[in-house]
Design brief:
The complex is a heterodimer. Chain A is about 35% helix and about 25% strand. Chain A is α+β, with helices and mostly antiparallel strands. A five-stranded antiparallel sheet of chain A has the order 1-2-3-5-4, with helices on one face. The interface between A and B is medium-sized, with 25 and 21 residues.
C-alpha cells in the first residue's frame, strides 16, 4: 500500500463541528482494517489536538499520513503559542475559560492525553507564531 | 445486557435510539477529556452534560450509549448530531442512582 495523505482544515470556535476530522480519520482507519486499539489511540490523540485548535489556536491544519506501519499526524496552527510547554504537559493544568469549562472541556488533559495515546510526540511552539505538533502511532507496537 | 434492557428500567426514556447495542460496563464522567481517554468501549456513559460534544466523544470512544441523568434534556445540536450514529437515553434519576440501576443489570 502506498502512503495515504489526508488534509483537513479545523475551523476556530466551532464546537458543533469539533471532532469531525477525528471522526473521519477514525472511519478511514477502520475501513482500512487497522487494529481497534490503533484506531482508538489515533482518534483520542486527534480529538484532543483538534479541540485544542478550536479552543486556543484559531483553528489550523491537520495532515495525516497513513502507512501500514505507522500513522503520522501533524497539527499546525498559527495561534498564540504555548508559553510553558512543561506546565501544559501536566495533567490538570489548563488556560481554558470558564465558558469552555462549562462545555466539559478544559480539564487540562489535552496534551497529556495526546502523549499517552501516541508512540512519539514532538511539540514545536513559538509565542505569537504558532504551534506544530507531530505524533506517530505505530501499528505493530 | 443491551441498551434495550436499560430502556426497560423505570425513569429511562429514549432520545435517539436506532438499534439495540451490547452494554458491558457503566461509566460516569462529566469531563470530555477524561471520558475520551477512559470511557470503556461498549459502556453506558452516564453524564449531566447536554451538548453536542458529548456525542462526538461518545462516537469516538465507541460507548454503547449516553445516559443523561437528572431529568435534563439534550441540546438540539446534540440530538441532531446523534441521529443514526449514537444512542442517547435520558434518566429522571441522579447520576449515582442511574448508574447503580444500570450496573445491577450487568
Amino acid at each position: 500500500m502506498e502512503d495515504l495523505h489526508l488534509e483537513f482544515t479545523v475551523v476556530p470556535d466551532d464546537f458543533t463541528r469539533a471532532g469531525e476530522v477525528s471522526g473521519k480519520v477514525k472511519k478511514t482507519l477502520k475501513d482500512l482494517g487497522f487494529p481497534p486499539l490503533v484506531v482508538r489511540r489515533t482518534a483520542i490523540a486527534m480529538y484532543e489536538a483538534e479541540i485544542n485548535m478550536v479552543i486556543h489556536a484559531n483553528g489550523g491544519k491537520i495532515t495525516v499520513t497513513i502507512n501500514p506501519d505507522v500513522i503520522t499526524v501533524v497539527f499546525a496552527d498559527s495561534g498564540p503559542g504555548i508559553p510553558d510547554i512543561g506546565l501544559a504537559m501536566q495533567e490538570g493544568w489548563s488556560t481554558a475559560s470558564e465558558e469552555i469549562r462549562d462545555m466539559g472541556f478544559g480539564a487540562g488533559m489535552g496534551l497529556p492525553n495526546i502523549k499517552k495515546s501516541s508512540d512519539y510526540m514532538d511539540v514545536q511552539t513559538e509565542l505569537g507564531v504558532g504551534t506544530t505538533i507531530t505524533i506517530k502511532i505505530f501499528t505493530n507496537p | 445486557m443491551t441498551t434495550g434492557d436499560i430502556l426497560k428500567l423505570d425513569g429511562i426514556t429514549p432520545s435517539v435510539y436506532d438499534e439495540d447495542k451490547d452494554v458491558e460496563k457503566v461509566f460516569c464522567c462529566d469531563l470530555l477529556s477524561v471520558a475520551m481517554a477512559r470511557a470503556p468501549e461498549g459502556s453506558a456513559w452516564v453524564t449531566v452534560m447536554t451538548n453536542a460534544n458529548v456525542v462526538a466523544v461518545a462516537s469516538l470512544a465507541e460507548v454503547a450509549c449516553v445516559v443523561l441523568a437528572e431529568g435534563f434534556d439534550y441540546d438540539e445540536a446534540a440530538l441532531k448530531a446523534a441521529r443514526g450514529k449514537v444512542t442517547l437515553l435520558r434518566s429522571s434519576d441522579p447520576v449515582y442512582e442511574t448508574a447503580a440501576k444500570i450496573g445491577a443489570l450487568i
